[in-house]
Amino acid sequence: MATNHLVLSGTITRSRSFKSPAGIAHSVIMLEHKSQCFEAEMLRNVYCQMQVIFSGERFESVTEQLKSGVDIEVQGFIALQQSRNGQNRLVLHAENVELKT
Questions:
Q1: What is the DSSP letter of 47?
Q2: Can you tell me whether residue 60 is helix, strand or coil?
Q3: What residues make up the domain containing 79?
Q4: What are the two backbone dihedrals, phi and then psi, of residue 64, each rounded to the nearest 5 degrees?
Q5: What one-character-per-residue DSSP string does 27-65 give?
Q6: Is residue 15 part of a domain?
Q7: Residue 1 forms part of a structural domain
Q8: Cα-to-chain-centroid distance, residue 33
Q9: Which of 25, 38, 40, 43 shows its CA 20 to 30 Å from the CA of 86?
Q10: Side-chain half-sphere of 64: how many Cα atoms within 13 Å?
Q11: Would 66 be classed as within a structural domain?
Q12: pLDDT value, residue 84
């Protein structure tokens, strides 16, 4: 079996919540990550933005707290998502979230 598990921390820059036609609650955020890591014995600045999707009842208790400016650590799996205009991007589907602020 292949492994697909990502842990990423950062600051929420955008958030929105909605229910699917099937009645499933979803929250979608944009997570901004900044850090420094060593690569080839050199310190490198790392920056990325990733869309994170929280789905289902288990996240309803934290949905109100997932607002712009909040620091979180999220664990989950990544998947390819195609937008309406046909562009592909990786998104993180949350399995666990920890509020840092």
A1: E
A2: coil
A3: 6-99
A4: -65, -25
A5: EEEEEEEEEEEEETTEEEEEEEEEEEEEESGGGTTTGGG
A6: yes
A7: no
A8: 10
A9: 25
A10: 1
A11: yes
A12: 86
